[in-house]
Design goal:
Keywords: ATP-binding, Coiled coil, Nucleotide-binding, Repeat. The chain is α/β, with parallel strands linked by helices. The chain is about 50% helix and about 10% strand. The termini are far apart.
Length: about 850
């Protein structure tokens, strides 16, 4: 009889399961789980070893590491540790109150609480290994406390509650460690607004992203976090935002832009307006407002029973919030601190139970002193809530929220519309508005300007500059990141390094420093060669003459050369001193030139299109207007545009003003209501549309299979080579399904689809979104060298200036410096774009606003300056 293995499959990440299906090894996985299910009651070490032996080869082929395999085995075994039959307490009907948030009311077996992923936290692992103890995990907290193994059982019950409170699956996959000592027990409760953690290790589903790193965030500094796609920038922000890293001060309020808070507020009132949801996303402020409203109302009425009930309700809500925080800490912390957190959780659960019982069965008011006591307590709570609101500047909250929403592009109608009516893009903007509205000690922003138009980008840029607290931002918009960053955090090779300045300054100084070191090394090598030649000549002469004294001198010189050869000055230009500049044990008495190993340079190369046999423009629009059915106005009106072979054309403008409509009219997806669109009969057009990433992310196939299916004549070898030079190599191309690829990798696949046929006209709509700065530079270089025409629609100022207006690289020095930086393997064609050719073929930039297309004679800078002026006037 076939056993249902879905509970086991839920413990394995979906991307891994999809990979096994793509590799056609899923039947082996299914057979292994079926075999284990047949003997699920066996908890011996032999059964564990047998399951691991069956799963390891299948999971390894799917790209799972050794540690993650062990964790998946543990999760599969955990499914069988708790009996499926519910207890009598579980069968009892639950009260429709909030009491279900306490672990006393939770009745979830390990099979349902185990995270559906390959990563299991340390506390979970210790708990899952003890089968007999796990059976008692569903009992009440009171019973747990009486048992001899209360800590382990409590960890299990707490873990179950955490997964209910935090539905984000990514958080369950993250494991974070840092250097701790007994002093850290007190350090987490300090009033410091800074973070300084050493030996930070961060893993995601068993993959190490940080190793022995130093995490340092100073108060009031605006940081830009940079690193290539896939290095773990978003995971690091998540770990900080969720306070997963041990040693983070508990008193710090850290905000990480997420839709979770907004979703919670929207669920409470599905018809709530966008403005109301954004305001209510600040949970602390919302609770203080509600307490003030409730308490002031009952105190004005003066009815004793109402005052008593209001006080009990406030106590219940505060106890619930305290329980939620205590539960999170009990799961995150381990060791002595974890034991203290679990004890604190027991206290919080008792307090919540007492507050709930008091709210359900309020004590009678029998004497005047009792009524006075309730009134005094209500007045005390009211003063606390009012003090909180004064700190939040609650009177101006609504005005500030409206200002932020308007700045992010919300119209008055959309601000007052129900939050449930917003699309995903607009909900992301509302989430950003919530983060900008709330006061916080540290604000974490992950790609905050993705899909924002330039007015909204500049608004966010100016708003962040005015924030007095610490801000950490991840963004691939170079000019945006340059303008908001005081310092950089560089995530590279599992380490964190820091630089005072923005990205452009960092790249320029890094390049100049490398060039200086290469020249230093070259001079040292030449000098050493000359000295070694003189020593060799002296040795030859001494050997020929048989002079032993000269031979001893030669050996002495050689020994001194080996021991003292190196830099004669330190990094500051001062004379080198051994005890100051080279502390510790070393093989020589001089420091050498330390050349840091560079990341592999990202390079794209696109084959040029064949020339058209007949001359003429590729696309010509004459007085084109487009109106959608049911609309009273044209979306675009009277548009005239001509694109010739090899020309560069950029289109910028606010969102919703017709840019996508224009592109659809050019490629023939829309028929103009007025005017004509003429296309060259022999010209080929390739388009990367905005929705390309969303379409690719839903496909279960691999990048290589998808590409060869679309271009069957490409051949496996050519397809692999083309995808490989775009960064989709090896298992990323032929094993991992598209559902498991990052946004940057999907953009590269979309580019491959567009550029493989070498179209005469390439249309790119927001193509730089999700790409890191190195990849954007590679795309810029490839498109500058491409002989076909390019039509770019983008809000990325850097991309428009470099690709369309052919602006020089802000980091580039003279040509020989570029060669010195990258080495002799750089061809002339790769060194950069020819300046003379750029001057002749500089492209045109157009502004599409309110449906009208207008050329910007001053280029992208003209549009940027006009938007800045308009924002300053407002």
């Amino acid at each position: 009889m076939t056993t249902d293995i879905n509970p086991y499959l839920q413990t394995i990440p979906k991307s891994v399961v999809d990979t096994t299906r793509a590799l056609k090894t899923f039947p082996k996985l299914e057979a292994a789980l079926q075999e284990h299910a047949a003997v699920a009651g066996d908890k011996s070490e032999e059964r564990r070893s047998a399951l691991e032996k069956k799963l390891r080869p299948v999971l390894t082929d799917a790209g799972v590491g050794k540690k993650a395999v062990l964790e998946i085995v543990e999760a599969c075994l955990a499914v069988q540790l708790v009996p499926a039959a519910p207890t009598a307490k579980e069968e009892a009907p639950q009260k429709p109150s909030s009491a279900s948030t306490s672990s006393k009311a939770v009745s979830i077996s390990a099979a349902t609480t185990a995270p559906p992923s390959s990563a299991v936290t340390k506390s979970e692992k210790d708990t899952l290994k003890k089968g007999k103890k796990a059976e008692r995990a569903s009992k009440t907290t009171a019973t747990v406390k009486k048992s001899a193994n209360s800590d382990d059982e409590l960890s299990q019950a707490v873990t179950a509650n955490l997964y209910i409170d935090n539905p984000d699956p990514k958080v369950r996959l993250i494991t974070a460690l840092s250097q701790e000592s007994r002093f850290h027990l007190d350090c987490t409760d300090t009033g410091s607004l800074e973070i300084d953690l050493k030996s930070v290790t961060l893993t995601l589903a068993g993959r190490e992203l940080l190793s022995d790193a130093h995490l340092r965030l100073k108060a009031g500094v605006h940081y830009g976090l940079i690193g290539r796609n896939g290095t773990g920038k978003s995971t690091l922000l998540t770990a900080i935002g969720e306070k997963l890293i041990p040693g983070l001060p508990r008193t710090l309020k850290i905000l990480f832009v997420s839709q979770l808070t907004n979703a919670r507020a929207a669920d409470e009132d599905p018809e709530a307006s966008v403005l109301n949801v954004v305001i209510r996303s600040d949970v602390e402020r919302t609770r203080a407002v509600e307490e003030c409203k409730l308490l002031s109302g009952v105190l004005e009425e003066g009815k004793e029973e109402e005052v008593r009930d209001a006080v009990l309700k406030v106590k219940l809500e505060r106890a619930r919030e305290r329980l939620r925080e205590a539960r999170k800490l009990a799961v995150k912390w381990s060791g002595a601190r974890g034991l203290g957190a679990r004890k604190d959780l027991l206290v919080a659960e008792k307090e919540f139970e007492a507050a709930e019982n008091a709210a359900l069965h309020p004590p009678a008011i029998t004497i005047p002193d009792s009524a006075s006591m309730w009134g005094t307590e209500a007045g005390s709570f009211l003063l606390e809530a009012q003090a909180q609101l004064d700190d939040f500047d609650a009177t101006s909250t609504e005005a500030r929220a409206q200002k932020i929403l308007f700045g992010l592009g919300f119209s008055n109608e959309r601000i007052n519309a129900p939050y449930s009516s917003l699309s995903g893009g607009w909900r992301s903007r509302a989430s950003l508005a919530s983060a900008l509205l709330q006061p916080a000690h540290i604000l974490l922003l992950d790609e905050p300007v993705n899909y924002l138009d330039l007015p909204a980008v500049l608004f966010v840029q100016h708003f962040i500059a005015s924030i007095p607290h610490t801000v950490v931002t991840v963004s691939h918009d170079r000019e945006f990141l340059d303008s908001i960053s005081d310092s950089l955090i560089i995530l590279r090779k599992e380490k964190l390094s820091y630089f005072d300045g923005n990205l452009t300054t960092y790249e320029r100084e890094s390049r100049q420093d490398r060039i200086h070191k290469l020249k230093q090394q070259d001079l040292l090598d030449k000098k050493k060669a000359a000295v070694q030649k003189s020593i060799a000549d002296a040795a030859k002469a001494a050997k020929k003459s048989g002079d032993d004294n000269k031979m001893r001198m030669v050996k002495s010189r050689q020994k001194k050369l080996d021991d003292r050869w190196g830099l004669e000055v330190n990094s500051k230009g001062h004379r080198f001193k051994l005890n100051r500049d080279l502390g510790g044990y070393h093989l020589t008495s001089r420091g050498g030139v330390e050349l840091e190993e560079m990341d592999e340079r990202v390079r794209f190369s696109f084959a040029d299109p064949e020339g058209l046999r007949f001359p003429g423009s590729l696309v010509h629009l004459d007085g084109v207007s487009v109106r959608y059915a049911g609309n009273e106005k044209d979306t675009i009106q009277g548009v005239g545009l001509t694109i010739g072979p090899g020309e560069r054309v950029g289109v910028v403008g606010p969102n919703g003003h017709g840019k996508t409509t224009l592109l659809n009219a050019i490629v023939g997806n829309l028929t103009p209501s007025k005017g004509t669109v003429e296309r060259h009969p022999k010209a080929s057009i390739g388009i990367y549309a905005q929705h390309t990433l969303e379409l690719l992310s839903t496909l279960p196939t691999t990048a290589l299979a998808h590409f060869t299916e679309k271009f069957p004549d490409s051949g496996d070898a050519n397809a692999r080579s083309f995808l490989g030079q775009l960064g989709l190599k090896g298992r990323t191309a032929d094993t991992i399904p598209l559902t498991g690829l990052s946004g940057g990798q999907l953009v590269r696949l979309g580019l491959a689809e567009v550029m493989w046929p070498s179209p005469d006209l390439v249309i790119l709509d927001e193509v730089t979104t999700h790409l890191d700065s190195d990849t954007i530079d590679a795309l810029v270089d490839a498109l500058q060298a491409y002989t076909g025409a390019v039509l770019l629609v983008s809000h990325d100022r850097y991309a428009v200036k470099r690709i369309i207006e052919l602006a020089p690289d802000p980091n580039a020095d003279e040509d020989d410096a570029t060669e010195a930086l990258h080495g002799d393997d750089i061809d002339d064609d790769d060194a950069g774009f020819d300046v003379k050719r750029a001057a002749k073929e500089q492209g045109r930039t157009y502004l599409l606003q309110n449906g009208t297309l207008k050329r910007l004679e001053g280029g992208m800078d003209q549009y940027t300056n006009s938007v800045i002026k308009r924002l300053e006037d407002v």
